[in-house]
């Protein structure tokens, strides 16, 4: 079972890899819309990437209003 | 017409396969412009059918198959129309799009939707009219209409009910959530799962296999296993028009089209 810290780090690593950012350039408290500059379609793509990575389903309504990596990781953790 | 390039889509016939490519900025929204060209497309079926085995429908847009009906156009048109006249205009549009979807649904050749990215609302309804969906593993599917106060209007519920079990149909409709391709395949919505960026290639490979079969047997099998739920489709148009007349729908659409944030307004 992953810890929340591990889940958060995996979310950050996944985002950094996909958006080709330097490792360590993203922090748990970052606003991913601002930091990654993503639109709604890219957000859906990111959701698929996270679901495939963690092997879970994350309904949109559970991440509605979420904009930082830490809270996103918490929502993922509750589905693991 | 063996090939056509319009403002929102293009198609090309080659060796028994028609490839229809949606290419309308920003996200292949299905409004009047795309509907008009889809009508042109299905009007060509009569001439193309005798020498066509398969039609593959895909998108040239990044990250999206189709975001669905053009809600901006729907709102702007409705807002410029007297409330009492709105159902007439909406019904006329729905009658036209239903004719297109039915023509694709019952085409005398096999239809494959090669889906990548977001496949939402009317986009999912277009994919559902096809015989098979081949999906990129990053694809996502949803019917978000109830979140705005109406129902899918391009034949979505009857076709979803025709093909899938109630648990998934209700989950998709009542939550409006997006589901990933793996889940969509598990419930039977997606026929084949493709690796990232591979959906069109796999659809072409599948099409090449299908072209080997006897055309009469293939058409007969399709007619036998895929009846069109005409009565429910008629009722869907009525229900959509009935729901659309409510002021709350216009208010929700207004919020949706005016939202300039990274995620559109959806309650």
Topology:
The complex is a heterodimer of chains A (80) and B (267).
Chain A lengths: L3 H15 L13 H5 L3 H15 L5 H4 L5 H9 L3
Chain B lengths: L2 E3 L3 E6 L2 E6 L6 E2 L1 H12 L1 H4 L5 E6 L4 E3 L1 E2 L1 H9 L6 H20 L4 E6 L2 E3 L1 H8 L2 E5 L3 E3 L13 H8 L2 H10 L3 E2 H6 L5 E3 L4 H12 L4 H11 L4 H15 L2 H12 L9
Parallel strand pairs in B: 3-5, 4-7, 5-8, 6-9, 8-10, 9-11, 10-13
Antiparallel strand pairs in B: 1-2, 2-3, 11-12
Keywords:
heterodimer, A: 80 residues, mainly alpha, Non-ribosomal Peptide Synthetase Peptidyl Carrier Protein, Chain A, 5 helices, 60% helix, B: alpha/beta, 2-enoyl-CoA Hydratase, Chain A, domain 1, seven-stranded mixed β-sheet, globular
| Quaternary structure state of the chains depicted | heterodimer
State the end-to-end distance of chain B.
Answer: 44 Å
| Total beta-strand segments of chain B | 13
Whole-number radius of gyration of chain A? 11 Å
Kindly state the percentage of residues in helix of chain B: 40-55%
Number of domains of chain B: 1
CA(first)-CA(last) distance of chain A:
8 Å
Q: Assign the CATH class of chain A.
A: Mainly Alpha
Low-confidence stretches of chain A: none
Mean pLDDT over all positions of chain A? 91
Question: What is the helical fraction of chain A, as a range of percent?
Answer: 55-70%
The SSE string of chain B, one letter per element, is EEEEHHEEEHHEEHEEHHEHEHHHH
Class inferred from helices and paired strands of chain A: mainly alpha
